[in-house]
Write a structure and sequence with these properties.
By secondary structure, the chain is mainly beta. Helices cover about 0% and strands about 55% of the residues.
Length: about 120
């Protein structure tokens, strides 16, 4: 059992920055990969960034160089730092955790990039 609680979404201007947080609790040791997905209206949910238990990361091509995924083990929190935001980044962002038994999702947080 894993619980994910997101925060940090909101409205930001193009070129601005935003940091999303995902507080993790429960059977943390069972998690093999964590990441962030996003879904815009009319589009499929897509992987934005992921971090594996050993610390390796990967990113969608559309966010490479702009977004950074990280973990703070002392706070049991995962972050997504988003810089140089574009209107195309507007979407609902979801925290995700994968365990051998099942996948877990946060409630989603809206990110809107607009002037």
């Amino acid at each position: 059992q894993v619980q994910l609680v997101e925060s940090g979404g909101g409205l930001v201007q193009p070129g601005g920055s935003l940091r999303l947080s995902c507080a993790v609790s429960g059977s943390i040791s069972s998690i093999v990969v964590m990441g962030w997905y996003r879904q815009a209206p009319g589009k499929q949910r897509e992987l934005v960034a992921a971090i594996i238990s050993g610390g390796g990361t990967n990113y969608a091509d559309s966010v490479k160089g702009r977004f950074t995924i990280s973990r703070d083990n002392a706070k049991n929190t995962e972050y997504l730092q988003m810089n140089s935001l574009k209107p195309e980044d507007t979407a609902v962002y979801y925290c995700h955790a994968r365990t051998p038994g099942r996948d877990y999702w946060g409630q989603g947080t809206q990110v809107t990039v607009s002037s």
